[in-house]
């Protein structure tokens, strides 16, 4: 029987986590290990200065554990302290809020968890749905606004194929993003990462004592080149599936660098 680890960055009680666990429930033995609270935007950060704890929680019949740490901490604790063996598959999500472009791939806790599992040679999938409102990405009570039904079925299809056939050569993580209005007939398109999704801004505000503080903000970039995840999700309204690699080495002739150094 396949062993499957499910995690996320929205927290162990997020409805998307339950949907992810349901999506692979009939594919093997499922263990859920996820942060005890909201941990969006922490990327692949790991806790090295404080101890971690986990506690078993009731999650609709699944073996589930709340971990006092980041998504990556949850994957590490899930593999090495709870399962005590390597799973055959790691599923991270289903996240509320699309994780597309290089902006989010390098900051998303959802993708960070999948990358961590992939670093041990585990086939990994990061799954997300488009947020109805950008503020929902960090809301602890976003379940009522979002349906995970389509994403759940698509995720199961992808997970089943990965377990049957393995990951394509050179691919460590499959990054799945489902439009908010997707149906079961919505096409899945294999995409590449867009460069940006946000036009970064900084808002300056002042506290009651007149001292400045800052919010990092930014408008969405909703158009890009054909074949990118941004264009596929926002403009074409199709499901984006992007193959990711842990190897971030620039694809150049390395001999071209010799003259510089």
Can you summarize this structure?
The chain has helices at residues 15-23, 71-83, 101-105, 109-118, 149-165, 229-235; strands at 3-7, 29-35, 54-59, 62-67, 89-96, 123-129, 173-178, 188-190, 198-206, 212-220, 239-244. It is α/β, with parallel strands linked by helices and 261 residues long.
Keywords:
261 residues; alpha/beta; Stationary-phase Survival Protein Sure Homolog, Chain: A; 9-stranded mixed sheet; two-stranded antiparallel ribbon; 6 helices; 11 strands; globular
Mind explaining what this structure looks like?
There is one protein chain. The protein is of the alpha/beta class and 261 residues long. The protein has a single domain (3-194, 225-247), classed as Stationary-phase Survival Protein Sure Homolog, Chain: A, CATH 3.40.1210.10. The chain has six helices and eleven strands. The protein has helices at 15-23, 71-83, 101-105, 109-118, 149-165, 229-235, and strands spanning 3-7, 29-35, 54-59, 62-67, 89-96, 123-129, 173-178, 188-190, 198-206, 212-220, 239-244. The protein has a nine-stranded mixed sheet with strand order 3-4-2-1-5-6-7-11-8, sandwiched between helices. Helix 1 (15-23) crosses helix 5 and helix 2 (71-83) crosses helix 4 (109-118). It is globular and about 50 Å long. The chain starts with a strand and ends in a 17-residue tail after the last strand. The mean pLDDT is 92.
Mean pLDDT figure: 92
CATH architecture: 3-Layer(aba) Sandwich
Shape designation: globular
Number of domains: 1
Number of strands: 11
Q: What is the count of helical runs?
A: 6
Proportion of helical residues: 10-25%
For the biggest β-sheet, the strand order reads 3-4-2-1-5-6-7-11-8
Q: Uncertain segments of ≥5 residues (pLDDT<50)?
A: none
Q: What string, H for helix and E for strand, traces the elements in order?
A: EHEEEHEHHEHEEEEHE
The separation of the N and C termini measures 52 Å
The share of residues in extended strands comes to: 25-35%
Main sheet makeup: 9 strands, mixed
- How big is the Rg? 19 Å
| Content-based structural category | alpha/beta
Query: What would CATH call the homologous superfamily?
Result: Survival protein SurE-like phosphatase/nucleotidase
């Amino acid at each position: 029987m396949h062993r499957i680890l499910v995690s996320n960055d929205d927290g162990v009680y997020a409805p998307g986590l339950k949907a992810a666990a349901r999506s692979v429930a009939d594919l093997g033995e499922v263990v859920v290990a996820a942060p005890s609270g909201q941990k969006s935007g922490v990327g692949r950060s790991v806790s090295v200065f404080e101890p971690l704890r986990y506690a078993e929680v009731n999650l609709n019949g699944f073996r589930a554990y709340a971990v006092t740490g980041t998504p990556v901490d949850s994957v590490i604790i899930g593999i090495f302290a709870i399962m005590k063996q390597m799973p055959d598959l790691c599923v991270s999500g289903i996240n509320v809020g699309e994780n597309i472009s290089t902006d989010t791939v390098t900051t998303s806790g959802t993708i960070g968890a999948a990358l961590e599992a992939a670093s041990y040679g585990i086939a990994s999938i990061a799954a997300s749905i488009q947020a109805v409102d950008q503020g929902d990405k960090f809301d602890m009570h976003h379940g009522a606004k979002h349906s995970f039904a389509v994403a759940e079925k698509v995720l199961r299809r992808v997970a089943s194929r990965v377990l049957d056939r393995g990951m394509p050569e050179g691919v460590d993580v499959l990054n799945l993003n489902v439009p908010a209005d997707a149906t079961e007939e919505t096409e899945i398109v294999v995409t590449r990462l867009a460069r940006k999704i946000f036009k970064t801004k900084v808002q300056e505000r002042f506290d009651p004592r007149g001292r400045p503080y800052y919010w990092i903000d930014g408008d969405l970039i909703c158009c890009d080149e054909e074949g990118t995840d941004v264009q596929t999700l926002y403009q074409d309204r199709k499901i984006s599936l992007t193959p990711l690699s842990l190897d971030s080495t620039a694809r150049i002739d390395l001999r071209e660098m010799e003259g510089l150094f």
